[in-house]
Design the sequence.
């Protein structure tokens, strides 16, 4: 069964958690004890209805303040698809959490309050989703019940958002009018919005085509682990385990190993369930080659005539995630990209990007928590990478503080520094 990962975003009190609760409730994905717990908590809070937002706002601080703080992951399934939801915070001080939630998403769902229309945070969320190259963007105009299900309100918000989206790199944009509290157009089509002829949200999530979103052209296999049992029965066995990051690999394919440049042929591809005839992203497999080559963690197997960029100078957009330190020119950090790690020097901080206006602030000295900027990095060893827009796996990296070992930044590679 196909898996769809999607992230929700929106301004504070736009109803993200209520929407997810409604999705789970109406699709019958809630256990009885969970429902009893939120009913009891709703009564204790004085609510005269079952507050479905409590299903995702699990932290005590979230429940007390009525806001989402951390990324909450929820899982559910229908007969057509399995889903992983990343409920991301809406406030600007939690931008890093939204970047985390969108980094693996196939689809981003941005909520807009029908009463307030497009606000600054709506634009910021759309920009971050486009920056993270999320292939599909769905704008849910929520709380339509509070504007008497007025079609004019929906169309006005739709037109304004489309105008903003023209400035972004959005490939697939859809709009759905909903009421998360009442359940209109969430799981089932609404009877009170006959003017809307599109699908309900769940129907859209079940049917949106995502198979072509992954890069199936550029074969990329970062080696994570070398398997050598060295037992009497498997004395000659040598396998290279990892997760396919792009393209398709098949037994008989001629491949090259980076950085050595040695070539070989794929002898077999194995999984936990046995051999397979092909492997594609994001399958976790073990690849066996016809020749014994010196291969270790961090090396990459790819096609001879389709190789990634190899270099030590990276041009990238970085979201700074640390509240303990700043990102400055000449800083030295650990960089991890796919399975390869090294030290990196920040050569240049070109500009800081205002995520609300898209204005570029040149001449800044540092990036602070939740800020996004364009930087040039120099690594101590060559990396094998693609532009992030071409491959989200081989085009992304994290930055790690060498002293604390904390992840302090997430980056998207724009290309090699000229």
Sequence:
């Amino acid at each position: 069964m196909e898996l769809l990962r999607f992230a929700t975003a929106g301004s504070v009190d736009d109803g993200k958690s209520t929407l997810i609760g409604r999705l789970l409730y109406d699709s019958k994905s809630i256990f009885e004890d969970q429902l009893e717990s939120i009913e009891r908590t709703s009564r204790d809070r004085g609510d005269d209805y079952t507050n479905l937002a409590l299903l995702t706002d699990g932290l005590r601080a979230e429940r007390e303040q009525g806001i989402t703080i951390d990324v909450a992951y929820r899982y559910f399934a229908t007969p057509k698809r399995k889903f992983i939801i990343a409920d991301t915070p809406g406030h600007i001080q939690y931008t890093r959490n939204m970047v985390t939630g969108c980094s693996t998403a196939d689809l981003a769902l941005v909520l807009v309050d029908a009463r307030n229309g497009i606000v600054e945070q709506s634009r910021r969320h759309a920009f971050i989703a486009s920056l993270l190259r999320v292939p599909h963007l769905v704008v849910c105009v929520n709380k339509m019940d509070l504007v008497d299900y007025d079609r004019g309100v929906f169309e006005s918000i739709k037109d304004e958002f489309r105008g903003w989206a023209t400035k972004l790199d959005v490939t697939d944009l859809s709009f759905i009018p909903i009421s998360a509290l009442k359940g209109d157009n969430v799981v089932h089509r609404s009877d009170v919005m006959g003017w809307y002829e599109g699908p309900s949200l769940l129907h859209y999530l079940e049917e949106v085509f995502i198979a072509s979103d992954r890069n199936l052209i550029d074969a990329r296999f970062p080696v994570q682990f070398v398997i050598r049992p060295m037992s009497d029965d498997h004395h000659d066995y040598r396998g290279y385990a990892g997760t396919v990051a792009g393209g398709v690999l098949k037994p008989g394919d001629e491949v090259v190993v980076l950085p050595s440049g040695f070539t070989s042929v794929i002898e077999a591809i194995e999984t936990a369930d046995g051999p397979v005839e092909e492997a594609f992203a994001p399958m976790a497999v073990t690849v066996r080659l016809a020749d014994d080559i010196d291969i270790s963690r961090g090396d990459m197997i790819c096609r001879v005539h389709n190789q990634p960029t190899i270099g030590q100078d990276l041009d990238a957009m970085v979201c700074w995630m640390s509240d303990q330190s700043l990102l400055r020119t000449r800083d030295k950090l650990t960089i991890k990209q796919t399975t390869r790690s090294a030290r990196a020097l920040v050569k240049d901080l070109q500009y800081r990007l205002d995520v609300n206006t898209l204005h570029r602030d040149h001449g800044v000295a540092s990036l602070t928590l939740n800020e996004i900027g364009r930087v040039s990095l120099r690594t101590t060893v060559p990396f094998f990478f693609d532009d992030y827009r071409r491959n989200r796996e081989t085009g992304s990296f994290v930055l790690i503080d060498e002293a604390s070992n904390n992840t302090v930044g997430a980056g998207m590679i724009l290309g090699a520094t000229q």
Observations:
- The chain has three domains: 3-207, 220-303, 309-416.
- The two ends are 44 Å apart (CA to CA).
- The longest strand covers residues 340-353.
- Residues 220-303 form a domain with the Elongation Factor Tu (Ef-tu); domain 3 fold (CATH 2.40.30.10).
